[in-house]
């Protein structure tokens, strides 16, 4: 048998991730926070983590700034879901114990979402300015 005139194939070496410009970092950091709002508006609130999760997974290796903001937004949405579930259980217990007279406390389920909306807008503005923002009262599970 004759040898092939072509060289042997080289092992695939992936390219390092391309770095981002500062304006792109600010834009995607802002989108990390705003995507949580968009996902909450267009889906069930429990799926609001999908937007920040996508931004985190796509850009986590390209920019520490975007990684920090998207991780913070992801942590906020996870915390929001936990707070909503706990509050729903408490409201249900209050409603059952008071034989339905306490059903008005279910209005309180809107409070964490409204607070998260305000903080998400503040975080998006801070990201667009190139500043670091930390949400108060959240569980920091994703780093």
From TrEMBL:
Write one Pfam family the protein is assigned to. MamF_MmsF
Superkingdom of the source? Bacteria
Q: Which UniProt keywords apply?
A: Membrane, Transmembrane, Transmembrane helix
> What compartments host this protein?
Membrane
Q: Which residues cross the membrane?
A: 30-59, 80-99, 105-127
Q: Which residues form a coiled coil?
A: none
- Chief place where the protein resides: membrane
Membrane topology, record value: Multi-pass membrane protein
Q: Which InterPro entries match?
A: MamF_MmsF (IPR019109)
Keyword Nucleotide-binding listed? The answer is: no
Protein name per its UniProtKB record: DUF4870 domain-containing protein
């Amino acid at each position: 048998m004759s040898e092939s005139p072509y060289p042997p194939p080289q092992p695939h070496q992936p390219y390092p991730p391309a770095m981002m410009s500062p304006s792109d970092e600010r834009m995607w950091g802002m989108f990390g926070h705003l995507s949580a709002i968009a996902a909450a508006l267009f889906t069930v609130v429990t799926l609001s983590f999908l937007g920040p999760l996508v931004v985190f997974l796509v850009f986590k290796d390209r920019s520490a700034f975007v990684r920090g903001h998207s991780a913070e937004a992801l942590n906020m949405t996870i915390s929001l879901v936990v707070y909503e579930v706990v509050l729903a259980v408490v409201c249900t217990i209050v409603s059952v114990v008071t034989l339905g007279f306490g059903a008005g406390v279910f209005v309180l389920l809107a409070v964490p979402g409204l607070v998260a909306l305000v903080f998400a807008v503040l975080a998006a503005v801070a990201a667009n300015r190139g500043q670091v923002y930390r949400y108060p009262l959240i569980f920091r599970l994703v780093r």
